[in-house]
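Support case: zinc ion complex. Customer-provided input:
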Amino acid sequence: MPVHNSEIAAMFDHVADLLEVQDANPFRVRAYRNAADTIRDQSRSVASMVEEGEDLSELPDIGEDLAGKIGEIVRTGNLPLLDELSEDVPEAIVEATRIPGIGPKRARALFEALDLGSIDDLKTAAKEGRIADIEGFGDKTEAKILEELERGDITERRFRLDIAEDFAEPLVAWIREIDGVDRAEIAGSYRRRKETVGDLDILAAGEDGGAIIDRFTEYDEVEEVVSKGKTRSTVRLRSGLNVDLRVIPEASWGAAMHYFTGSKAHNIEGRRRAQDRDLKLNEYGIFDGEKRVAGASEEEVYDAIGLPLIPPVLRENRGEIKAAEKGNLPDLITRDDLKGDLHSHTDASDGKNTLREMAQAAQDLGYEYLAITDHSRSQTQAGGLSEEDLEAQIDEIAGLNEDFDGFRLLAGCEVDILDDGRLDFPDELLEKLDLVVASVHSKFDLDEDAQTRRIIRAMENPCVHIIGHPTGRQIGQRRAFDVDIERLVDAAKDTGCVLELNANPIRLDLKDVHCRMAAEAGVKIAISTDAHSTGGLGNIRYGVDQARRGWLSAADVVNSRGWSDLSRMLRR
Ligand code: DGT
Ligand code: CA
Ligand code: CA
Ligand code: ZN
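Agent response - structure generated as follows:
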Protein backbone atom coordinates (compact mmCIF):
# COMPACT_ATOMS: atom_id res chain seq x y z
CA MET A 1 0.00 0.00 0.00
CA PRO A 2 1.63 3.24 -1.04
CA VAL A 3 1.65 5.85 1.72
CA HIS A 4 1.12 9.37 0.40
CA ASN A 5 3.26 12.31 1.42
CA SER A 6 0.27 14.09 2.89
CA GLU A 7 -0.46 11.10 5.14
CA ILE A 8 3.08 11.09 6.54
CA ALA A 9 2.94 14.86 6.98
CA ALA A 10 -0.44 14.61 8.71
CA MET A 11 0.96 12.02 11.12
CA PHE A 12 3.87 14.29 12.04
CA ASP A 13 1.55 17.27 12.48
CA HIS A 14 -0.63 15.12 14.65
CA VAL A 15 2.36 14.11 16.78
CA ALA A 16 3.22 17.81 17.14
CA ASP A 17 -0.38 18.62 18.18
CA LEU A 18 -0.37 15.91 20.81
CA LEU A 19 3.07 16.86 22.12
CA GLU A 20 1.91 20.44 22.41
CA VAL A 21 -1.07 19.44 24.50
CA GLN A 22 1.34 17.49 26.73
CA ASP A 23 3.39 20.65 27.11
CA ALA A 24 6.43 18.93 25.59
CA ASN A 25 9.66 20.74 24.70
CA PRO A 26 8.79 23.36 22.03
CA PHE A 27 11.86 22.40 19.99
CA ARG A 28 10.61 18.86 19.75
CA VAL A 29 7.17 20.10 18.65
CA ARG A 30 8.77 22.36 16.04
CA ALA A 31 10.93 19.49 14.74
CA TYR A 32 7.81 17.50 13.88
CA ARG A 33 6.09 20.51 12.30
CA ASN A 34 9.14 21.30 10.17
CA ALA A 35 9.43 17.69 9.08
CA ALA A 36 5.74 17.71 8.11
CA ASP A 37 6.32 20.82 5.96
CA THR A 38 9.35 19.28 4.28
CA ILE A 39 7.43 16.14 3.37
CA ARG A 40 4.42 18.05 2.10
CA ASP A 41 6.68 20.14 -0.13
CA GLN A 42 8.40 17.20 -1.83
CA SER A 43 7.51 16.88 -5.47
CA ARG A 44 8.35 13.15 -5.31
CA SER A 45 6.74 10.43 -3.25
CA VAL A 46 8.68 9.96 -0.04
CA ALA A 47 7.51 6.33 0.08
CA SER A 48 9.20 5.66 -3.25
CA MET A 49 12.36 7.38 -2.01
CA VAL A 50 12.39 4.94 0.91
CA GLU A 51 11.81 2.01 -1.41
CA GLU A 52 14.71 3.09 -3.59
CA GLY A 53 16.94 3.18 -0.54
CA GLU A 54 17.55 6.94 -0.61
CA ASP A 55 18.90 8.63 2.50
CA LEU A 56 16.02 10.74 3.78
CA SER A 57 18.17 12.40 6.41
CA GLU A 58 19.56 14.48 3.56
CA LEU A 59 16.25 16.29 3.29
CA PRO A 60 15.99 19.59 5.18
CA ASP A 61 14.81 19.19 8.79
CA ILE A 62 14.88 15.39 8.64
CA GLY A 63 17.48 13.84 10.96
CA GLU A 64 18.33 10.17 11.49
CA ASP A 65 15.54 9.72 13.99
CA LEU A 66 12.81 11.19 11.78
CA ALA A 67 14.16 9.37 8.73
CA GLY A 68 13.77 6.15 10.72
CA LYS A 69 10.20 7.06 11.64
CA ILE A 70 9.34 7.80 8.02
CA GLY A 71 10.74 4.39 7.06
CA GLU A 72 8.53 2.80 9.67
CA ILE A 73 5.43 4.59 8.38
CA VAL A 74 6.19 3.61 4.80
CA ARG A 75 6.73 -0.05 5.71
CA THR A 76 3.86 -0.51 8.18
CA GLY A 77 1.46 2.37 7.60
CA ASN A 78 1.73 3.17 11.30
CA LEU A 79 3.73 5.26 13.72
CA PRO A 80 3.87 3.65 17.18
CA LEU A 81 4.76 6.98 18.80
CA LEU A 82 1.48 8.39 17.52
CA ASP A 83 -0.49 5.48 18.97
CA GLU A 84 1.20 5.95 22.34
CA LEU A 85 0.53 9.67 22.40
CA SER A 86 -3.07 9.17 21.30
CA GLU A 87 -3.66 6.93 24.30
CA ASP A 88 -2.52 9.67 26.64
CA VAL A 89 -4.24 12.64 25.03
CA PRO A 90 -7.91 12.65 24.00
CA GLU A 91 -8.40 13.75 20.39
CA ALA A 92 -11.08 16.17 21.52
CA ILE A 93 -8.46 18.30 23.27
CA VAL A 94 -6.55 18.61 20.01
CA GLU A 95 -9.76 19.65 18.27
CA ALA A 96 -10.43 22.22 20.98
CA THR A 97 -7.07 23.87 20.24
CA ARG A 98 -8.54 24.97 16.88
CA ILE A 99 -10.84 27.34 18.75
CA PRO A 100 -9.26 30.79 18.40
CA GLY A 101 -7.76 31.86 21.72
CA ILE A 102 -7.59 28.32 23.09
CA GLY A 103 -4.02 27.06 22.98
CA PRO A 104 -2.90 23.56 23.96
CA LYS A 105 -2.42 24.44 27.63
CA ARG A 106 -5.80 26.06 28.04
CA ALA A 107 -7.51 23.24 26.14
CA ARG A 108 -6.01 20.69 28.50
CA ALA A 109 -6.89 22.76 31.57
CA LEU A 110 -10.48 23.00 30.34
CA PHE A 111 -10.88 19.28 29.73
CA GLU A 112 -9.25 18.34 33.01
CA ALA A 113 -11.13 20.85 35.14
CA LEU A 114 -14.50 19.70 33.82
CA ASP A 115 -13.58 16.09 33.16
CA LEU A 116 -14.80 16.29 29.54
CA GLY A 117 -14.52 13.50 26.99
CA SER A 118 -15.59 15.09 23.71
CA ILE A 119 -16.26 18.32 21.85
CA ASP A 120 -19.96 17.73 22.46
CA ASP A 121 -19.25 17.67 26.20
CA LEU A 122 -17.45 20.96 25.81
CA LYS A 123 -20.43 22.48 24.03
CA THR A 124 -22.78 21.28 26.76
CA ALA A 125 -20.48 22.71 29.42
CA ALA A 126 -20.43 26.06 27.64
CA LYS A 127 -24.24 26.09 27.38
CA GLU A 128 -24.59 25.26 31.04
CA GLY A 129 -22.28 28.06 32.03
CA ARG A 130 -19.71 25.79 33.64
CA ILE A 131 -16.72 27.17 31.75
CA ALA A 132 -17.05 30.67 33.14
CA ASP A 133 -16.46 29.26 36.62
CA ILE A 134 -13.03 27.89 35.82
CA GLU A 135 -10.09 29.96 36.94
CA GLY A 136 -8.74 32.02 34.01
CA PHE A 137 -11.73 31.55 31.67
CA GLY A 138 -14.70 33.81 32.37
CA ASP A 139 -17.94 34.71 30.58
CA LYS A 140 -16.35 36.18 27.47
CA THR A 141 -14.28 33.08 26.75
CA GLU A 142 -17.27 30.87 27.38
CA ALA A 143 -19.40 32.83 24.92
CA LYS A 144 -16.61 32.71 22.33
CA ILE A 145 -16.19 28.94 22.69
CA LEU A 146 -19.90 28.40 22.24
CA GLU A 147 -19.99 30.69 19.21
CA GLU A 148 -17.11 28.78 17.58
CA LEU A 149 -18.63 25.39 18.28
CA GLU A 150 -22.00 26.44 16.91
CA ARG A 151 -20.34 27.71 13.75
CA GLY A 152 -19.31 24.10 13.18
CA ASP A 153 -16.22 24.52 10.99
CA ILE A 154 -14.02 22.96 13.67
CA THR A 155 -15.84 19.67 13.43
CA GLU A 156 -17.00 19.62 9.79
CA ARG A 157 -15.05 17.07 7.79
CA ARG A 158 -13.91 18.61 4.50
CA PHE A 159 -10.58 18.01 2.79
CA ARG A 160 -8.25 20.74 1.68
CA LEU A 161 -7.86 20.67 -2.09
CA ASP A 162 -4.15 19.81 -2.00
CA ILE A 163 -4.76 16.89 0.36
CA ALA A 164 -7.66 15.65 -1.74
CA GLU A 165 -5.38 15.77 -4.79
CA ASP A 166 -2.95 13.43 -3.17
CA PHE A 167 -5.61 10.73 -3.04
CA ALA A 168 -7.60 11.72 -6.11
CA GLU A 169 -4.95 11.78 -8.80
CA PRO A 170 -3.53 8.26 -8.23
CA LEU A 171 -7.09 6.94 -7.92
CA VAL A 172 -8.37 8.41 -11.19
CA ALA A 173 -5.20 7.23 -12.97
CA TRP A 174 -5.89 3.74 -11.66
CA ILE A 175 -9.55 3.88 -12.77
CA ARG A 176 -8.44 4.82 -16.29
CA GLU A 177 -6.58 1.50 -16.45
CA ILE A 178 -9.65 -0.61 -15.58
CA ASP A 179 -10.78 -2.84 -18.46
CA GLY A 180 -13.71 -1.29 -20.28
CA VAL A 181 -13.11 2.27 -19.05
CA ASP A 182 -12.78 4.60 -22.04
CA ARG A 183 -12.06 7.70 -19.99
CA ALA A 184 -12.40 8.94 -16.45
CA GLU A 185 -12.39 12.41 -14.88
CA ILE A 186 -13.01 13.97 -11.52
CA ALA A 187 -16.00 16.32 -11.43
CA GLY A 188 -17.65 18.06 -8.43
CA SER A 189 -16.09 20.75 -6.30
CA TYR A 190 -12.67 19.25 -7.07
CA ARG A 191 -13.01 20.19 -10.73
CA ARG A 192 -14.29 23.63 -9.77
CA ARG A 193 -11.06 23.90 -7.74
CA LYS A 194 -12.82 24.83 -4.55
CA GLU A 195 -10.46 25.29 -1.62
CA THR A 196 -11.94 22.30 0.20
CA VAL A 197 -13.92 19.31 -1.06
CA GLY A 198 -16.57 17.32 0.78
CA ASP A 199 -16.14 14.24 -1.38
CA LEU A 200 -14.83 13.23 -4.80
CA ASP A 201 -17.17 12.70 -7.73
CA ILE A 202 -15.55 10.59 -10.43
CA LEU A 203 -17.09 9.78 -13.78
CA ALA A 204 -16.01 6.88 -15.96
CA ALA A 205 -17.23 6.33 -19.51
CA GLY A 206 -17.88 2.67 -20.28
CA GLU A 207 -20.61 0.17 -21.13
CA ASP A 208 -20.16 -2.57 -18.56
CA GLY A 209 -20.92 -0.65 -15.39
CA GLY A 210 -21.18 -3.72 -13.15
CA ALA A 211 -17.67 -4.98 -13.92
CA ILE A 212 -16.15 -1.51 -13.64
CA ILE A 213 -17.81 -0.89 -10.29
CA ASP A 214 -16.66 -4.30 -8.99
CA ARG A 215 -13.08 -3.49 -9.86
CA PHE A 216 -13.35 0.03 -8.39
CA THR A 217 -14.38 -1.30 -4.99
CA GLU A 218 -11.21 -3.42 -4.95
CA TYR A 219 -8.90 -0.38 -4.94
CA ASP A 220 -6.46 -1.05 -2.14
CA GLU A 221 -7.14 2.20 -0.27
CA VAL A 222 -10.86 1.42 0.03
CA GLU A 223 -11.75 0.97 3.67
CA GLU A 224 -15.50 0.61 3.34
CA VAL A 225 -17.90 0.13 0.45
CA VAL A 226 -20.77 2.41 1.45
CA SER A 227 -22.99 1.55 -1.52
CA LYS A 228 -22.65 -0.43 -4.69
CA GLY A 229 -24.99 -0.65 -7.67
CA LYS A 230 -24.77 -1.37 -11.41
CA THR A 231 -23.59 2.08 -12.43
CA ARG A 232 -22.67 3.84 -9.23
CA SER A 233 -20.86 3.23 -6.00
CA THR A 234 -19.71 5.19 -2.98
CA VAL A 235 -16.64 4.13 -1.02
CA ARG A 236 -14.75 5.52 1.92
CA LEU A 237 -10.97 5.56 1.56
CA ARG A 238 -8.51 4.87 4.38
CA SER A 239 -7.88 8.61 4.56
CA GLY A 240 -11.54 9.23 5.42
CA LEU A 241 -12.30 10.71 2.00
CA ASN A 242 -15.53 9.52 0.34
CA VAL A 243 -15.58 8.81 -3.38
CA ASP A 244 -18.62 8.54 -5.64
CA LEU A 245 -18.01 6.75 -8.94
CA ARG A 246 -20.57 6.82 -11.71
CA VAL A 247 -20.26 4.84 -14.92
CA ILE A 248 -21.99 6.45 -17.87
CA PRO A 249 -22.32 5.81 -21.59
CA GLU A 250 -20.05 7.87 -23.86
CA ALA A 251 -23.08 9.61 -25.43
CA SER A 252 -23.91 11.19 -22.05
CA TRP A 253 -20.35 12.17 -21.16
CA GLY A 254 -20.74 15.93 -21.55
CA ALA A 255 -24.12 16.06 -19.84
CA ALA A 256 -22.82 13.98 -16.93
CA MET A 257 -19.68 16.10 -16.62
CA HIS A 258 -21.84 19.18 -16.62
CA TYR A 259 -24.28 17.81 -14.06
CA PHE A 260 -21.73 16.36 -11.64
CA THR A 261 -19.34 19.27 -11.87
CA GLY A 262 -22.08 21.47 -10.47
CA SER A 263 -22.37 23.53 -8.57
CA LYS A 264 -25.91 22.63 -7.74
CA ALA A 265 -26.93 26.30 -7.96
CA HIS A 266 -25.31 26.61 -11.40
CA ASN A 267 -27.13 23.47 -12.57
CA ILE A 268 -30.49 24.74 -11.42
CA GLU A 269 -30.02 27.89 -13.53
CA GLY A 270 -29.00 25.75 -16.51
CA ARG A 271 -32.06 23.58 -16.16
CA ARG A 272 -34.26 26.66 -16.02
CA ARG A 273 -32.76 27.91 -19.29
CA ALA A 274 -33.42 24.53 -20.89
CA GLN A 275 -37.06 24.68 -19.75
CA ASP A 276 -37.41 28.14 -21.25
CA ARG A 277 -36.45 26.54 -24.57
CA ASP A 278 -38.88 23.63 -24.07
CA LEU A 279 -35.96 21.28 -23.50
CA LYS A 280 -35.12 19.03 -20.61
CA LEU A 281 -31.60 18.98 -19.15
CA ASN A 282 -30.39 16.19 -16.91
CA GLU A 283 -27.25 14.11 -16.34
CA TYR A 284 -27.96 12.01 -19.47
CA GLY A 285 -28.31 14.79 -21.97
CA ILE A 286 -30.54 17.53 -23.31
CA PHE A 287 -33.85 16.21 -24.55
CA ASP A 288 -36.51 17.51 -26.87
CA GLY A 289 -39.36 15.28 -25.78
CA GLU A 290 -37.86 11.78 -25.90
CA LYS A 291 -35.10 12.71 -28.31
CA ARG A 292 -31.59 13.44 -27.06
CA VAL A 293 -30.43 16.57 -28.87
CA ALA A 294 -27.13 17.09 -27.05
CA GLY A 295 -24.97 15.59 -24.34
CA ALA A 296 -21.75 14.10 -25.70
CA SER A 297 -19.69 17.17 -24.79
CA GLU A 298 -20.11 20.07 -22.38
CA GLU A 299 -19.84 22.52 -25.30
CA GLU A 300 -22.90 20.89 -26.83
CA VAL A 301 -24.81 21.16 -23.58
CA TYR A 302 -24.04 24.86 -23.18
CA ASP A 303 -24.66 25.50 -26.85
CA ALA A 304 -28.12 23.95 -26.57
CA ILE A 305 -29.01 26.46 -23.86
CA GLY A 306 -27.57 29.36 -25.84
CA LEU A 307 -24.30 29.80 -23.96
CA PRO A 308 -20.57 29.44 -24.62
CA LEU A 309 -18.68 26.93 -22.47
CA ILE A 310 -18.32 28.28 -18.94
CA PRO A 311 -15.08 27.29 -17.18
CA PRO A 312 -15.71 25.00 -14.16
CA VAL A 313 -14.08 27.47 -11.73
CA LEU A 314 -16.87 29.98 -12.48
CA ARG A 315 -19.81 27.61 -12.06
CA GLU A 316 -21.06 28.90 -8.73
CA ASN A 317 -24.11 30.86 -9.89
CA ARG A 318 -22.40 34.10 -9.09
CA GLY A 319 -23.35 35.88 -12.28
CA GLU A 320 -21.45 33.66 -14.73
CA ILE A 321 -24.54 32.73 -16.71
CA LYS A 322 -25.52 36.36 -17.31
CA ALA A 323 -21.92 37.17 -18.21
CA ALA A 324 -21.74 34.23 -20.62
CA GLU A 325 -25.01 35.26 -22.24
CA LYS A 326 -23.65 38.74 -22.91
CA GLY A 327 -20.26 37.47 -24.07
CA ASN A 328 -18.66 39.03 -21.00
CA LEU A 329 -16.97 36.06 -19.38
CA PRO A 330 -13.65 37.16 -17.91
CA ASP A 331 -10.44 36.29 -19.72
CA LEU A 332 -9.18 34.23 -16.79
CA ILE A 333 -5.56 34.35 -15.75
CA THR A 334 -3.43 31.24 -16.31
CA ARG A 335 -0.22 29.98 -14.76
CA ASP A 336 1.70 30.98 -17.90
CA ASP A 337 0.75 34.63 -17.39
CA LEU A 338 2.88 34.82 -14.26
CA LYS A 339 6.39 36.22 -14.56
CA GLY A 340 7.52 35.72 -10.99
CA ASP A 341 6.70 35.18 -7.35
CA LEU A 342 6.57 37.99 -4.79
CA HIS A 343 6.75 36.29 -1.39
CA SER A 344 9.32 33.65 -0.37
CA HIS A 345 11.54 32.71 2.55
CA THR A 346 15.06 31.32 2.78
CA ASP A 347 17.07 29.60 5.49
CA ALA A 348 18.00 33.08 6.72
CA SER A 349 14.60 33.04 8.49
CA ASP A 350 12.31 30.00 8.64
CA GLY A 351 12.75 28.70 5.07
CA LYS A 352 14.65 25.57 4.18
CA ASN A 353 16.74 26.59 1.17
CA THR A 354 19.45 29.11 0.40
CA LEU A 355 19.08 32.25 -1.70
CA ARG A 356 20.88 30.55 -4.56
CA GLU A 357 18.71 27.42 -4.39
CA MET A 358 15.52 29.50 -4.35
CA ALA A 359 16.79 31.53 -7.32
CA GLN A 360 17.57 28.36 -9.27
CA ALA A 361 14.14 26.89 -8.55
CA ALA A 362 12.43 30.11 -9.68
CA GLN A 363 14.42 30.06 -12.93
CA ASP A 364 13.47 26.43 -13.46
CA LEU A 365 9.83 27.55 -13.30
CA GLY A 366 10.55 30.02 -16.09
CA TYR A 367 10.26 33.12 -13.91
CA GLU A 368 11.91 36.47 -14.53
CA TYR A 369 12.10 37.33 -10.85
CA LEU A 370 11.64 36.05 -7.33
CA ALA A 371 11.21 38.29 -4.32
CA ILE A 372 12.98 37.11 -1.17
CA THR A 373 10.88 38.24 1.78
CA ASP A 374 12.27 36.78 4.98
CA HIS A 375 10.68 37.63 8.32
CA SER A 376 11.49 40.76 10.29
CA ARG A 377 13.03 40.97 13.75
CA SER A 378 9.91 40.50 15.93
CA GLN A 379 9.33 37.05 14.46
CA THR A 380 11.81 35.43 16.83
CA GLN A 381 10.24 31.98 16.58
CA ALA A 382 10.43 32.18 12.76
CA GLY A 383 14.07 33.27 12.74
CA GLY A 384 13.29 36.92 11.95
CA LEU A 385 16.22 38.91 10.57
CA SER A 386 17.87 41.75 12.44
CA GLU A 387 18.44 45.04 10.61
CA GLU A 388 22.07 44.03 10.06
CA ASP A 389 21.05 40.61 8.72
CA LEU A 390 18.72 42.25 6.23
CA GLU A 391 21.37 44.77 5.12
CA ALA A 392 23.75 41.86 4.56
CA GLN A 393 21.11 39.97 2.61
CA ILE A 394 20.50 42.97 0.35
CA ASP A 395 24.21 42.93 -0.52
CA GLU A 396 24.26 39.20 -1.03
CA ILE A 397 21.31 39.43 -3.41
CA ALA A 398 23.02 42.21 -5.37
CA GLY A 399 26.07 39.94 -5.69
CA LEU A 400 24.03 36.96 -6.87
CA ASN A 401 22.16 39.09 -9.39
CA GLU A 402 25.47 39.77 -11.18
CA ASP A 403 25.58 36.08 -12.10
CA PHE A 404 22.06 35.77 -13.48
CA ASP A 405 21.01 36.28 -17.04
CA GLY A 406 17.38 37.33 -17.66
CA PHE A 407 16.50 36.76 -14.04
CA ARG A 408 16.75 38.72 -10.81
CA LEU A 409 16.19 38.18 -7.15
CA LEU A 410 14.27 41.05 -5.64
CA ALA A 411 15.51 42.12 -2.24
CA GLY A 412 12.46 42.20 -0.01
CA CYS A 413 11.11 41.55 3.42
CA GLU A 414 7.93 40.28 5.02
CA VAL A 415 7.76 42.91 7.69
CA ASP A 416 5.53 42.37 10.68
CA ILE A 417 2.69 44.79 11.21
CA LEU A 418 3.06 45.59 14.91
CA ASP A 419 0.09 45.73 17.26
CA ASP A 420 -0.62 49.38 16.54
CA GLY A 421 -0.05 49.26 12.76
CA ARG A 422 3.52 50.51 12.81
CA LEU A 423 6.10 48.33 11.08
CA ASP A 424 8.80 46.16 12.58
CA PHE A 425 11.61 47.88 10.62
CA PRO A 426 12.36 51.59 10.18
CA ASP A 427 11.42 53.22 6.87
CA GLU A 428 15.09 54.00 6.09
CA LEU A 429 15.79 50.29 5.90
CA LEU A 430 12.59 49.40 4.03
CA GLU A 431 13.36 52.04 1.43
CA LYS A 432 16.44 50.10 0.39
CA LEU A 433 14.33 47.12 -0.66
CA ASP A 434 12.81 46.31 -4.04
CA LEU A 435 9.67 44.98 -2.41
CA VAL A 436 8.00 45.09 1.00
CA VAL A 437 5.25 42.69 2.05
CA ALA A 438 3.62 43.66 5.35
CA SER A 439 1.76 40.99 7.32
CA VAL A 440 -0.07 40.42 10.58
CA HIS A 441 1.39 37.56 12.63
CA SER A 442 0.23 38.54 16.12
CA LYS A 443 -2.79 39.84 18.04
CA PHE A 444 -5.32 37.91 15.96
CA ASP A 445 -7.96 38.64 18.57
CA LEU A 446 -8.29 42.42 18.15
CA ASP A 447 -11.82 43.56 17.49
CA GLU A 448 -12.78 44.20 13.89
CA ASP A 449 -12.37 47.94 13.92
CA ALA A 450 -8.99 47.87 15.66
CA GLN A 451 -7.68 45.09 13.38
CA THR A 452 -8.89 46.90 10.28
CA ARG A 453 -7.37 50.22 11.37
CA ARG A 454 -4.12 48.46 12.22
CA ILE A 455 -3.76 47.05 8.70
CA ILE A 456 -4.86 50.26 7.02
CA ARG A 457 -2.22 52.13 8.96
CA ALA A 458 0.39 49.77 7.50
CA MET A 459 -1.01 50.38 4.01
CA GLU A 460 -0.67 54.09 4.50
CA ASN A 461 3.09 53.71 4.84
CA PRO A 462 4.36 54.24 1.27
CA CYS A 463 7.20 51.76 1.92
CA VAL A 464 4.64 48.93 1.92
CA HIS A 465 3.82 47.43 -1.47
CA ILE A 466 1.75 44.36 -0.60
CA ILE A 467 -0.34 43.23 2.37
CA GLY A 468 0.49 39.53 2.94
CA HIS A 469 -2.24 36.93 3.67
CA PRO A 470 -4.70 39.74 4.52
CA THR A 471 -7.12 37.81 6.75
CA GLY A 472 -4.74 35.36 8.43
CA ARG A 473 -6.96 32.33 8.01
CA GLN A 474 -5.58 28.80 7.83
CA ILE A 475 -8.09 26.44 6.32
CA GLY A 476 -9.47 23.99 8.88
CA GLN A 477 -7.12 25.34 11.54
CA ARG A 478 -7.54 29.02 12.15
CA ARG A 479 -10.43 31.21 11.22
CA ALA A 480 -9.74 34.58 9.62
CA PHE A 481 -9.27 37.30 12.16
CA ASP A 482 -12.06 39.86 12.40
CA VAL A 483 -11.35 42.40 9.71
CA ASP A 484 -13.55 44.50 7.45
CA ILE A 485 -12.52 43.46 3.96
CA GLU A 486 -14.47 46.22 2.27
CA ARG A 487 -12.59 48.84 4.23
CA LEU A 488 -9.29 47.13 3.39
CA VAL A 489 -10.21 47.15 -0.27
CA ASP A 490 -11.12 50.84 -0.13
CA ALA A 491 -7.86 51.65 1.60
CA ALA A 492 -5.90 49.61 -0.93
CA LYS A 493 -7.61 51.58 -3.68
CA ASP A 494 -6.80 54.91 -2.00
CA THR A 495 -3.18 54.09 -1.21
CA GLY A 496 -2.25 52.03 -4.29
CA CYS A 497 -1.33 49.14 -2.03
CA VAL A 498 -1.58 45.61 -3.50
CA LEU A 499 -3.42 42.77 -1.72
CA GLU A 500 -1.91 39.31 -1.68
CA LEU A 501 -3.61 36.14 -2.75
CA ASN A 502 -1.43 33.77 -0.76
CA ALA A 503 -1.24 30.59 -2.87
CA ASN A 504 -0.33 28.24 -0.06
CA PRO A 505 -3.23 25.73 -0.12
CA ILE A 506 -3.48 26.01 3.67
CA ARG A 507 -4.12 29.75 3.36
CA LEU A 508 -5.62 30.73 -0.02
CA ASP A 509 -5.99 34.17 1.48
CA LEU A 510 -7.69 36.33 0.07
CA LYS A 511 -10.57 34.03 -0.70
CA ASP A 512 -12.16 33.86 -4.14
CA VAL A 513 -15.03 36.29 -3.54
CA HIS A 514 -12.72 38.82 -1.93
CA CYS A 515 -10.32 38.66 -4.87
CA ARG A 516 -13.23 39.50 -7.09
CA MET A 517 -14.39 42.30 -4.82
CA ALA A 518 -10.89 43.80 -4.85
CA ALA A 519 -10.48 43.54 -8.62
CA GLU A 520 -13.89 45.10 -9.22
CA ALA A 521 -12.79 48.03 -7.08
CA GLY A 522 -9.67 48.37 -9.24
CA VAL A 523 -7.31 47.00 -6.58
CA LYS A 524 -4.41 44.90 -7.81
CA ILE A 525 -3.66 41.42 -6.52
CA ALA A 526 -0.30 39.62 -6.13
CA ILE A 527 -0.50 35.83 -6.41
CA SER A 528 2.38 34.69 -4.21
CA THR A 529 3.37 31.33 -2.76
CA ASP A 530 4.98 32.40 0.53
CA ALA A 531 7.29 29.44 -0.27
CA HIS A 532 9.45 28.20 2.59
CA SER A 533 11.34 25.85 0.28
CA THR A 534 12.08 25.36 -3.40
CA GLY A 535 9.18 22.88 -3.57
CA GLY A 536 6.83 25.47 -2.07
CA LEU A 537 7.13 27.62 -5.20
CA GLY A 538 5.08 24.96 -6.97
CA ASN A 539 2.03 25.94 -4.91
CA ILE A 540 1.51 28.82 -7.32
CA ARG A 541 -1.06 26.74 -9.24
CA TYR A 542 -3.41 26.72 -6.23
CA GLY A 543 -3.23 30.50 -6.20
CA VAL A 544 -3.98 30.64 -9.91
CA ASP A 545 -7.02 28.39 -9.47
CA GLN A 546 -8.25 30.55 -6.61
CA ALA A 547 -7.68 33.70 -8.68
CA ARG A 548 -9.72 32.19 -11.50
CA ARG A 549 -12.51 31.40 -9.04
CA GLY A 550 -12.28 35.08 -8.17
CA TRP A 551 -12.79 36.05 -11.84
CA LEU A 552 -9.30 37.58 -12.12
CA SER A 553 -7.62 38.19 -15.44
CA ALA A 554 -3.91 38.82 -15.99
CA ALA A 555 -4.52 42.57 -15.90
CA ASP A 556 -5.66 42.33 -12.26
CA VAL A 557 -2.50 40.59 -11.12
CA VAL A 558 0.74 42.50 -10.61
CA ASN A 559 3.07 39.56 -11.07
CA SER A 560 1.79 39.02 -14.58
CA ARG A 561 4.04 41.99 -15.42
CA GLY A 562 7.72 41.86 -16.23
CA TRP A 563 10.03 43.50 -13.69
CA SER A 564 10.31 46.87 -15.41
CA ASP A 565 6.52 47.32 -15.54
CA LEU A 566 6.09 45.87 -12.11
CA SER A 567 8.64 48.14 -10.49
CA ARG A 568 6.84 51.12 -11.99
CA MET A 569 3.48 49.85 -10.71
CA LEU A 570 4.82 49.35 -7.21
CA ARG A 571 6.11 52.90 -6.92
CA ARG A 572 3.79 54.82 -4.66
P1 DGT B 1 -18.67 19.05 -2.06
O1 DGT B 1 -18.58 17.60 -2.37
O2 DGT B 1 -19.49 19.35 -0.87
O3 DGT B 1 -17.35 19.71 -1.98
O4 DGT B 1 -19.42 19.78 -3.27
P2 DGT B 1 -19.88 19.23 -4.70
O5 DGT B 1 -20.23 20.41 -5.52
O6 DGT B 1 -18.88 18.29 -5.24
O7 DGT B 1 -21.24 18.50 -4.36
P3 DGT B 1 -21.71 16.97 -4.37
O8 DGT B 1 -20.55 16.04 -4.23
O9 DGT B 1 -22.79 16.87 -3.37
O10 DGT B 1 -22.37 16.78 -5.78
C1 DGT B 1 -21.61 16.84 -6.98
C2 DGT B 1 -22.38 17.61 -8.00
O11 DGT B 1 -23.57 16.92 -8.36
C3 DGT B 1 -22.84 18.97 -7.54
O12 DGT B 1 -21.85 19.94 -7.65
C4 DGT B 1 -23.99 19.21 -8.48
C5 DGT B 1 -24.58 17.85 -8.69
N1 DGT B 1 -25.72 17.68 -7.81
C6 DGT B 1 -25.74 16.99 -6.66
N2 DGT B 1 -26.98 17.03 -6.14
C7 DGT B 1 -27.74 17.77 -6.96
C8 DGT B 1 -29.11 18.17 -6.97
O13 DGT B 1 -29.89 17.86 -6.08
N3 DGT B 1 -29.51 18.94 -8.02
C9 DGT B 1 -28.67 19.31 -9.00
N4 DGT B 1 -29.12 20.06 -9.99
N5 DGT B 1 -27.40 18.94 -9.02
C10 DGT B 1 -26.93 18.18 -8.02
CA1 CA C 1 -18.17 16.37 -4.23
CA1 CA D 1 -20.65 13.58 -4.11
ZN1 ZN E 1 3.49 35.52 6.79
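The domain at 5-88 is CATH 1.10.150.110 (DNA polymerase; domain 1).

Case will auto-close in a few days if no follow-up is received.
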